[in-house]
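Deliverable D4.2, example record:
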Amino acid sequence: MVPTERDLEEAIFDATKIALSKLLSDHSGESFYYIALITSGEALRPFLSAWSLEALADSSENEVDAAEIKWSYADSPYCAFADECFEYVEKLFDQRPAINDKEYDLRLRAMESALKKLDSTGVFGEGNSREGLYINVECMPPDHTNTERAHRLNPEKSLISWLEEAAE
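Output generated by the structure prediction step:
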């Protein structure tokens, strides 16, 4: 039986929740400002990437370096963090039809819905703490849909720096 969009959303929700729990536990005390599910232009199964202020400081030698990597999923030390959590998601994706526009949109909707559902649980914080965190489902290479999803997934205050520094 072919997994439904809802099946994908639930599996992505579960995988992301476990990966986030591990990230936040292993790196408690860090101030995360970026958490994203990353997928390819073919909408393959996502992986988690994140940045904290502390990781950014440790990964850059100066302000110029920091500005260049601040929003780069690939440069983060937390790129593909707890990737094993997404193995079941990959199995479900493999059972879906070949990628076309409709399938691509369905997969991205499932990813976005999973993040939205996680956000509603408070895992990304609430109030001021949530406003300091940008979350998204990002396609690589980036395109304008990243910005559309960012607006749907974040309070406006969460977007200020990202829109000024990195938006497509």
